[in-house]
Amino acid sequence: MQHRRLGTSAIVVSDICMGTMTFGSQADEAAALRILDRSYDAGINFYDTAEGYPVPPDVKWVGRTEDIVGKWLKTKPRDAIILATKVSGPSHVWFKSPKRHGMTALDRRNIMVAIEDSLTKLGTDYIDLYQTHWPDHDTPYEETMDVLDELVRAGKVRINGCSNETSWGLMKSVAASEKLGAARYQTIQNNFSLNNRRFEDELAQVCRKEGISLIPYSPIAGGVLATKYSNDARPEGARFSNYLAMGGRQEAMARRFVNDKSIASAERFAAIAREHGLDPVTFAVAWSKQHDFVASTIVGVSREDQLDPIFAAADLVLPESAMKAVNKVSREIMYPMG
User: Fold this and answer.
1) Which of 31, 56, 220, 331 is the most exposed place for a label (fewest CB within 10 A)?
2) Which residues make Cβ contacts (< 8 Å) with residue 144, sequence separation at least 6?
3) 50-59 average pLDDT score
4) Is 143 within 8 Å of 107 (Cβ atoms)?
5) Which residues are within 8 A (CB) of 43 and not within 5 positions of it... i.e. 6 or more apart?
6) Residue-wise over 253-277: b if at least 16 C-beta within 10 A, else e?
7) CA geometry: angle at 18 spanning 54 and 66, to 5°?
């Protein structure tokens, strides 16, 4: 397992991070604990969760993921784990958090309430990486960055990061931190995969110039790059199979991932992977890691048998021929996720 620095901070993490958003919904506690143990044994030291997990967001199980991760954390040396969690952010956008009855703006009160709740659920006195789950472009960045800086100075958080942020928002946060002399975002957690390369358009350059690391999520595009939705397949129990049947926000999200263009590009990427003797999942994770602005790629599973092709990407470097073949597909099927 390779290791990389988060931004310009002192924290160094494995270049694969285990995400936990299905723990407590698709994966029950016993399965989740086994997945976490196997990830630790494979050399992964970086684990990502959120106050609003598991997905899909629902008041009936919100917070269950942090409970499970907290139980597991007690079985490991705390210093051996780099633990990330998130405060929800505003609930009037694409994401609606079931926390605090949807009152989750990134103001002082909400952040302070969220961090104490997460610390309690996780059973720890500090979070290594504390992230804003969704940006709040209506709350002044000075207020958000000031309270996040206070958490760092209090020793409750080591570094801060953001998620699902825009180029404008990321630069606003940097400017606010510089104005205040406050701790800045060291990471950004956004969607990035073979099927969604929009991060490269602008945000990658922001990261390079400002010393901020991407920790991409959904490198397998929710399973689409594993080709499990090809030929109109809807695997039983799969996340997007469920979402497509739910309607509303969940169905709209699934349609972004599962559509004619995304399926076509996934099949071509899978063919490239097989030409190089690789599982499509291994190929997709390795491709995600192989960018200068990426520190660690967040993966997620709901079953143990999904782990091996991910672990196979740990020390894999794709040859230039594979990278060129990928770029050719990306030029011919542009922005398959819109």
Assistant:
1) 331
2) 106, 107, 111, 132, 136, 173, 176
3) 95
4) yes
5) 1, 14, 314
6) bbebbbbeebbebbbbbbebbeeee
7) 35
Residue type, 17: C
Q: Which domains are present in the chain?
A: 3-189 (3.20.20.100)
H or E segment to which residue 160 belongs:
strand 157-163
The DSSP bridge partners found for residue 4 are 13
Instruction: Output the pLDDT for position 217.
Output: 98
Neighbours of 126 (CB within 10 A): 17
Rounded CA separation 206/271 (Å): 33
Cα–Cα–Cα angle for 80, 85, 91, rounded to 5 degrees: 175
Q: For residue 97, what are the CA distances in angstroms to 88, 89, 309?
A: 6, 8, 32
Burial class (CB in 10 A: 0-12, 13-18, 19+), 313: buried
| 53 annotated active-site | yes
47, 53, 130, 185: the catalytic one is: 53
| 326, 284 contact by CB (below 8 A) | no
Residue bearing the bigger pLDDT, 252 or 90:
90
Provide the token pair at 102: 């949807």
225-242 confidence digits (pLDDT tens):
999 998 887 888 788 888
